[in-house]
Amino acid sequence: MPAYHPESELLMDYASGALPEPVALLVASHVSLCRDCQAEVARLEALGGALFDGLEGEAMAPGAMDHALARLEVTDNLEAASATTSPPSRAGRLVPRPLRDYLGDDLEALSWKTRAGVSEAALLTSFPGFRTRLLRIKAGTTLPQHTHEGSEYTLLLAGGFTDASGHYLRGDVAVADPSVDHRPVADDGEDCLCLAVTDAPLRLTGPVGRYLNFLARL
Amino acid sequence: MSAASRKSDDPPDPARLSRLVVAVGENRDRAAFAELFGHFAPRIKTYLLKQGAEAGQAEEMAQEAMIMVWRRAESFDPAKSAASTWIFTIARNKRIDALRRERRPDYDPADPTLPPALVPAAPAAADRAAELTQQAERLAEAIRALPEEQAELVRMAYFEDKAHGQIASETELPLGTVKSRLRLALARLRKALNAGGREDA
User: Nearest residue on chain B to A8, judged by CA atoms?
Assistant: First the structure.
């Protein structure tokens, strides 16, 4: 089971439906891999249910229920169960279902860009204000030292990495905010696969990184 | 006895609401649905209005959400959630879809990538369902007992589409204060939340 979980406020935001889609995707993917967080989300949804049940109702229009029932007659037969689940492929066994709904079954079919031992495939690219990427980091690679202007959430899907805050394995969520200046190192042995969501561009802080930032701005 | 027969005009209790959803799922029971509609549709409408829907849109969406309740009632499992929780998640997803135009990534409790765990024998479904309806009752009380400054933040989190970071910037409270108040609220609610009184959080 994962050792690093999203903080409870983040799970509450997921349960309430307040998280922006990219972060919700990362949280849902972690929760799919973590029974403790499934139980916690169920509790936080129960809290939502109790708050919701305690709301003062706003009167519906006269005849609203008859109207809804009439709509039922029309549409009842339209919605056949479409949930056909094909057996997961190799990638499918690695990628939790919420993420697979976005990526499809074949990781190789994504458009990967590779540089210095790190491959990345962007997803949810039209979502404003967030950068959502699947990252594949070659075993043993040290990433350039960097810090963040916003927050970066990383969900480990395979392999592992270590930085000053800990050693992260499958299912773990690492959170880095602007105060974190880190230099993650991928574990030896197996390539590291992770989902990374950043809500502002990262800033490279090492000497090479500063040069890359400079180039990125050109 | 039909799930739809009832004695008084008291608001239905959580156990009754669960039975009504089951009756809709098993028998397409229209009287049960009418009672659910009477209880939940106005609450869904209020929820959507709080989230910024226009009045006409809130009315329309509340009807659509209730139609989903009818259609999905078969998948309702009283051993997994209280009726109010289940309907809250339907209203929440409807809002994300219609008001924010985003997808809701839902986790899958039966995700094939999650290895089967060595879980202690699960309690019988009926016991679990009873625990959940008691949990709903305890929660309602615990929410009423929350200090107002904590209750207000919890309501903002659930009803105003604001993640805790946004709450901090809009209330001009430091992020740390928002987090600690939400955590205090959760700590107070924890006892009511843990179905059966287990401290398993």
Answer: B183
* CB distance A163 to A184 below 8 Å: yes
Which of A25, A36, A53 to mutate to probe the B interface, most B CBs <10 Å? A53
User: Considering the domain boundaries, does residue A143 fall inside one?
Assistant: yes
Q: Please give the tally of structural domains in chain A.
A: 2
Give the model confidence (pLDDT) of A48-89 as tens digits.
Answer: 999 999 999 999 999 999 998 888 776 554 444 444 455 556
Specify if A121 maps to a domain. yes
Determine the CATH number of domain B116-200.
1.10.10.10
Q: Is the pTM of this model over 0.95?
A: no
Q: Indicate yes or no: CB of A71 within 8 angstroms of CB of B63.
A: yes
